[in-house]
Specification:
With about 350 residues, the chain is an alpha+beta fold. Helices cover about 15% and strands about 35% of the residues.
């Protein structure tokens, strides 16, 4: 029933985010869902011709790999010519299951194989963003010490016993994944509708279960005197924080913000679109478009006309209201987008100074 529902209906999270982000010029690029796991990608519309969704994948690891209550979902993109993988995961819970968590982490990684000839394995990608409820816990320290450290904001006292940090020190592959400093309180487990850590009979020990990791492909260093900022593809962490204001879950949400600096490997869209002549609501819209020499078109390609939703609360209203999109069936992506343009209302007859009626557009 969940699979049928996912196919037939837009999930509530997608609908909500589209309502919020559309006025900010964001468009939903892709999504993938596996039971409780959902991964959504939005981008500002001007980037769409340079974002190609190559594949989406679900990797269940629950019930010996047959059940999707645990596992990972992945969206594989080509962004301005660079290969990017984004993974959302949910790993096994409980303090004693650390080995199982690491096993599932490796299994999700091993299952991410792709048809692209130049990047068959996820480790060949320029960037991997990996986040989710990883369920790693804090070992050895007792509940009282952990809570006192949190109360006094001595988070660094807890880092050395964080299971993910320990694993990164011993696992060469996991060590290649970077993470920002944990300068916020552990995000699990809270009493619902409160900011109090678990007061139930189990009194679970707080832990940083919700994490954001990233891995950049190692660049061949030909010139050791070249500054790091000249790298063609670089990621810089801006913030890594939790949000205590939300209380509907026993977890606190975590957000991570990056600056991605790149030198585009692709600078021209595959399709150039242009509306011809004055555009009015009472006449057909004539469109001209130009295809790149290496673009393979399909009879199932289509061109769509979309209303541009922009936030005009602090800027004057402009004449830009509509966009043309070219969607490629072969690439399953938008490959061309026009500049914003205005569609005029119905034309009216206006009289000139000589009282001669003339059409006015």
């Amino acid at each position: 029933m969940s699979l049928l529902s996912d196919t037939a209906f837009e999930d509530p999270w997608s609908s909500y985010f589209m309502d919020v982000l559309s006025p900010l010029s964001f468009v939903k690029v892709s999504s993938v869902r596996m039971q409780g796991l959902l991964l959504l990608i939005f981008a500002k519309y001007q980037h769409l011709p340079f974002i190609q969704v190559l594949s989406t994948k679900s990797t269940p690891t629950g019930l010996f790999g047959y059940w999707g209550n645990k596992g990972g979902v992945n969206i594989f993109l080509k962004l301005y010519g660079y290969y990017v993988s984004i993974i959302n995961c949910h790993l096994p819970p409980h303090m004693a299951n650390n080995d199982q968590r690491l096993e599932h982490f490796d299994r999700i990684l091993e299952m991410q194989n792709f048809e692209a000839q130049d990047t068959p394995n996820i480790l060949d990608h320029d960037l991997i963003l990996w986040f989710g409820d990883m369920n790693f816990r804090i070992e050895d320290f007792g509940l009282h010490f952990v809570r006192e450290s949190i109360k006094n904001q001595r988070y660094s006292d807890l880092w050395e016993k964080d299971q993910l940090s320990i694993a990164k020190r011993h696992d060469p592959l996991l060590r290649e994944f970077q993470e920002g400093s944990l300068l916020f309180p552990p995000t699990y487990k809270f009493d619902k509708n409160s900011n109090n850590y678990d007061t139930s009979e189990k009194k679970r020990k707080p832990a940083w279960t919700d994490r954001v990791l990233w891995r950049l492909k190692r660049q061949s260093q030909t010139d050791f005197h070249t500054p790091a900022l000249s790298a063609p593809f670089a990621l810089f962490l801006r913030s890594y924080i939790s949000h205590m204001v939300y209380t509907i879950s026993d977890h606190k949400p975590v957000t991570c913000t990056f600056d991605l600096e790149l030198k585009p490997l692709v600078s021209a869209p595959l399709i150039t679109l242009l509306p011809e002549g004055p555009c009015t609501m009472e006449s057909d819209l004539l469109i001209s478009y130009c295809l790149a020499a290496d673009f393979l078109s399909s009879a199932w390609d289509w061109i769509g006309l979309y209303k541009v939703y922009i936030d005009i609360s602090d800027i004057p209203e402009t004449e830009d209201q509509f966009l043309l999109f070219y969607y490629s069936n072969n690439l399953q992506s938008v490959v061309g987008i026009s500049k914003p343009f205005k569609i005029q209302p119905f034309s009216f007859l206006e009289e000139d100074p000589l009282d001669e009626a003339q059409p006015q557009i």
